[in-house]
Amino acid sequence: MGDSGKLTKAEVPRETKCESDARGATEATATPGETCPACGARGKAVGTVTMKAMLAIPLTEVRSGAYRFCRTPGCPVVYYSADTEQTFLEQDIRERVHNKHPEGEDVLVCYCLKRSPESIRGEIARTGRTTVASEINAAIRAGQCACDIRNPQGTCCLANVRAVVERLSGHLASQRPQRAL
Fold this sequence. Notes:
Blueprint: E1 44-46, H1 48-54, E2 67-69, E3 77-81, E4 87-89, H2 117-127, H3 132-141, H4 147-150, H5 158-175
Antiparallel strand pairs: 1-2, 2-3, 3-4
Helix pairs in contact: 2-5
């Protein structure tokens, strides 16, 4: 491990629980520095303001330069430098990362409104539906969202929220007793 306690490029695990199909066909055209040094999936560019806000380490340990976000579930790397010389693992982040635990009931999916799959499931169980997407849209219109800073991926959570709602709605629907015809 390097002086900062972070994995050096040589120490980043090459084989993880990441599945090769998570990389998709676009990896063949990825340029150097776009792919995660641990799982090989193409990372998403992330602003340094987002990354610095999410890191739970002294910011003096962060090298200057461009960084990417690895959204692959099971991969230990959350952020990595474009030159892949510096990586930050989930243990270095202030919040658990939804993209790393998409099935995690208690992991926030909306970091601005503090909504988790568990809270969305509870709303669906109580009311038969969820208003989380409309709540987020209203918060966006009111200037009450800061996904670019509060969400580890550095962008709006709505796509993740919709995926969670779809998963939960389907799961809850399959558990309802069927009426006899």
